[in-house]
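Case study 2.
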Amino acid sequence: MDYEARVRELVDKAEITDRKHAYLRAADALDPDRMVADFVTEGFTASYSPGGEPIQGREAIRHWYAERLGTVVASSHHVSNVEITFDDPDTATLRCYLYSWQRFADHPETADRHRFARYLDTWVRVDGRWMQKSLTCLVAGEYCSDAVPRIGEYFDWDR
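Prediction:
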């Protein structure tokens, strides 16, 4: 790979990482409209549970996010171990680890949700801007202290 292409790849990796962080800030701000309008493509697909129907399209995911965030009063997403590979100059796969915490309205603090997962995303360049084309949340485990912990029941962790 020539020097110019290598620099372009490094810049693209930084932009995709920054976009993922901004997407998660929108989630923590409990703003489903911004999560969708600023970060997902028209044909966006999301999977949050294995065997379930993927959520397809911008309006469907906006509605799904709005419904899920409707009972959340505080949220904090933390990602690490970001790995980005390119299928071509305008298509990338992002893999990263996730820890998230959420507090819900009308629930005791002991019912806060803690989730340990990985994201597997496809990002595409649309009009010069990186956008999420797909998101899969590969959950390794989650718990609320008043619920039975769920460990590794969602997806094949090795994807």
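The beta strands are 40-47, 55-56, 72-88, 91-104, 113-126, 129-143, 150-151.
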